[in-house]
Amino acid sequence: MKRTIISLVCALFAPLAFAQTSTTTTEETTSTKPATTSETTTSTTYTTGAVSTYEPGKTIVVKSDEGPVSFALGTAARIVNGAGKVVTAPLRAGQKVRVYYTGPTESRTVERVIVED
């Protein structure tokens, strides 16, 4: 009888002895904003014209109806043809392009150039 009781007690405590404990840590981060905030929205616009000068990875100047317009080529700028295929050849002066860009006049950044020829 003693053996049976001891066996039952051991059987009841064995799962507790091998159970793993779990801890969950929650970290909460707060940040404060300055009293005055300004919100800038960017919209993509485009200019159509002929390439005047082109420096791969740096700048492109397009002669449009408004005159020559200079753009900075960002690292994400893509140059594609009308079908959407990437153009690997450098742009030539006189090629007709459509330049999609963001940013104000003094810092226009190209997102995509579509070669229309």
Written description of the protein model:
The chain has a domain at 45-115: OB fold (Dihydrolipoamide Acetyltransferase, E2P), CATH 2.40.50. It is built from one helix and five strands, in the order H-E-E-E-E-E. The protein is mainly beta. The model has no long low-confidence stretch (mean pLDDT 79). The longest helix is centred in the N-terminal third of the chain and has 17 residues, at 2-18. It has a five-stranded mixed beta barrel. Strand 1 (45-55) and strand 2 form a beta hairpin.
Q: What's the structural blueprint in terms of helices and strands?
A:
Elements (H helix, E strand, L loop, with lengths): L1 H17 L26 E11 L3 E6 L2 E15 L14 E7 L6 E7 L2
Parallel strand pairs: 3-5
Antiparallel strand pairs: 1-2, 1-4, 2-3, 4-5
Q: Can you describe this structure in just a few lines?
A:
This protein is mostly beta strands and 117 residues long. The protein contains 1 helix and 5 strands. The N and C termini lie far apart (98 Å).
Give the topology string: H per helix, E per strand: HEEEEE
Rough outline: elongated
Radius of gyration: 32 Å
Largest sheet descriptor = 5 strands, mixed, barrel
Instruction: Note poorly predicted spans.
Output: none
CATH homologous superfamily placement of the domain at 45-115: Copper binding periplasmic protein CusF
According to CATH, what is the topology of the domain at 45-115? OB fold (Dihydrolipoamide Acetyltransferase, E2P)
Total strand segments: 5
Keywords:
117 residues; mainly beta; OB fold (Dihydrolipoamide Acetyltransferase, E2P); five-stranded mixed barrel; 5 strands; elongated
